[in-house]
Amino acid sequence: MKVVSNPGGRSHGASAKSEVQDGYTRENQALSLVKLMDALGYDKANVIGYSAGAWLAMGLLDLYPERVASVVLGGWDCLNGIPETPFGKLSFEMFMDFARETAPELTHSLSAADERSAECFFNELSKHCNDDGDLLTRSTPKLFWVGASDPYYTPMSKLAEKQVIPLILGKGDHLGEVNNPDRTTVMEILKFIKG
């Protein structure tokens, strides 16, 4: 059995973590995923990206459109990125405070180095990509997915309607939807991928 690590998932789970900002650019992460596809022998992939994964999927669609057979974009504002809060654009500190409060199982074991690498990734997510709206007009089959209680629900549903992109509406919040999608959501995503 051939085992290939995925350097494209930087700062998530047990993946490699770096404190160098350039390692987290969408360009570098997209290239890492293409290299993984090459190593596995895949010319094209059906890509499912949720939250930061949707941001990265948009990067694949932008930089390597010939490698994307279809794309599911979930839990992400594809035009504006990081959400606004009543106190301005979501900052890394606000994000971490919220994560510690709402998902302590994801944050309790983070070291100081883990947090620095997560901040590097967050900084890249915060950069606005002006051309992302144009990516949604490309012919690659697209599907939006969001939970009814996700803060990204409103911008995603408006954009889906405007761009005539199908939308799967789950029952969860941001983390709940991706961690525990209901059976109907999973079946709809599989149906979309199978075309």
Describe the structure.
The chain is of the alpha/beta class and 195 residues long. It has helices at residues 26-40, 52-63, 92-102, 104-107, 112-125, 132-135, 153-163, 174-179, 183-194; strands spanning 45-50, 68-74, 84-85, 88-89, 142-147, 167-170. The strands form two sheets. It has a four-stranded parallel sheet with strand order 1-2-5-6, sandwiched between helices. It has a two-stranded antiparallel ribbon with strand order 3-4. The longest helix has 15 residues, at 26-40. 28% of the residues are buried.
Task: Give a quick rundown of the structure.
This protein has 195 residues and is an alpha/beta fold. 46% of the residues lie in helices and 14% in strands.
Topology, element by element:
Blueprint: H1 26-40, E1 45-50, H2 52-63, E2 68-74, E3 84-85, E4 88-89, H3 92-102, H4 104-107, H5 112-125, H6 132-135, E5 142-147, H7 153-163, E6 167-170, H8 174-179, H9 183-194
Parallel strand pairs: 1-2, 2-5, 5-6
Antiparallel strand pairs: 3-4
Helix pairs in contact: 1-2
Which descriptors would you attach to this protein?
46% helix; four-stranded parallel beta sheet; alpha/beta; 6 strands; globular; 195 residues; two-stranded antiparallel sheet; disordered N terminus
